[in-house]
């Protein structure tokens, strides 16, 4: 597994064989995870997969029942380790009457070597919010302020739990640019997201969790390659219903002027298509996107889990 091998980038945090139970629920079942400086790791998985539990162990909010968690080579509950971490969780309880500028100053004062407020404000794009009380901001504006607070301490490792929920497209793009700048600067980032295009746009590495286990780990490209299914677009006079019945076609749909056919046997499908319609045009073949790869992986894991339970 990446992270315990010859990678020259510094190891920032890791879980080794981590188990965690919440009562009867076995939320993590022997999870290995390694995070390095200058990389963005996207942690994906369906609801209840164990993502928040894994982050909680790395942040020292809870301890593993078995296995270990390390943050900068120390116990994650060690204050010296936690100083270098920035966190943006799904919910933030911040004093509503404090102005954004005051919140930034207060947060920066907790850290030994904070990033300059001007720098934080520019990165988070919150110049126009500084004089506003936090409680009066819109949900998307509050999210941007929460990001600013997460980077105040100049973290070497940043945890972002669904950071762009509720942001409009422009604000999301701006946040992505800020995250990319931090990673280019050597910061390690752990991102959990349900927006697969976000993982696709940002992640160097993707870990897919299901039922507290690591299902797959690798680049977005490698994850995609694990799914054999290809999509074939073409403009054809062949009727959609006829194509949908071909054994080479897993799914068929109309996509504007063209048809979109999913296939586990794209070469056979192409040969048959070209033979059946010599005038076929607009041909395009693409590997499945991250969304398909992810759905396929987690679907297979659920089926395996159900079979195990039975
Ligand atoms: N404090 C808790 N008490 C009881 N069960 C819990 C607790 N925290 C988490 N769980 C359970 O542990 C499992 C893993 O939850 P976790 O929050 O880690 O998943 P997640 O991948 O972050 O999910 P989501 O995408 O919904 O945020 C779930 O079945 C959840 O119900």
UniProtKB/TrEMBL annotation:
Q: What SUPFAM superfamilies does this protein map onto?
A: P-loop containing nucleoside triphosphate hydrolases
Q: Which Pfam families match?
A: ABC_tran (PF00005)
Q: Name one GO molecular function term.
A: ATP binding
| Boundaries of every ABC transporter domain copy | 13-236
Q: Which UniProt keywords apply?
A: ATP-binding, Nucleotide-binding, Transport
Protein name as catalogued: ABC-2 type transport system ATP-binding protein
Source organism per entry reads Thermomonas haemolytica
The taxonomic lineage of its organism, from the top, reads: Bacteria, Pseudomonadati, Pseudomonadota, Gammaproteobacteria, Lysobacterales
């Amino acid at each position: 597994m990446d992270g315990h091998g010859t990678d020259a980038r510094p190891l920032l945090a890791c879980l080794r064989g981590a188990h965690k139970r919440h009562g009867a629920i076995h939320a993590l079942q022997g999870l290995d995870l390694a995070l390095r400086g200058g990389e963005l790791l996207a942690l994906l998985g369906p609801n209840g997969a164990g993502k928040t539990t894994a982050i909680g162990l790395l942040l020292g909010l809870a301890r593993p029942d078995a296995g270990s968690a390390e943050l900068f080579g120390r116990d994650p509950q060690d204050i010296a380790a936690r100083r270098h971490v920035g966190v943006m969780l799904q919910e933030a309880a911040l004093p509503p009457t404090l102005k954004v500028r005051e919140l930034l100053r207060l947060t920066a004062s907790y850290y030994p070597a904070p990033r300059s407020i001007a720098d934080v404000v520019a990165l988070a794009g919150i110049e126009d919010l500084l004089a506003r009380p936090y409680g009066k901001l819109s949900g998307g504006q509050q999210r941007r302020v929460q990001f600013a607070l997460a980077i105040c301490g100049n973290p070497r490792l940043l945890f972002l739990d669904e950071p762009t929920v509720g942001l409009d497209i422009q604000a999301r793009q701006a946040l992505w640019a800020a995250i990319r700048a931090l990673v280019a600067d050597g910061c390690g980032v752990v991102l959990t997201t349900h927006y697969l295009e976000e993982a696709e746009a940002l992640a160097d590495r993707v870990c897919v969790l299901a039922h507290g286990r690591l299902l797959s780990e690798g680049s977005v490209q490698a994850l995609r390659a694990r799914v054999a299914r290809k999509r074939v677009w073409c403009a054809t006079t062949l009727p959609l219903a006829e194509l949908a019945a071909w054994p080479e076609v897993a799914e068929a749909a109309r996509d504007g002027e063209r048809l979109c056919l999913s296939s586990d046997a794209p070469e056979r499908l192409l040969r048959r298509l070209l033979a059946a319609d010599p005038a076929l045009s607009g041909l395009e073949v693409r590997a499945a996107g991250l969304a398909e790869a992810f759905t396929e992986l987690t679907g297979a894991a659920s089926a395996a889990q159900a079979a195990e339970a039975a």
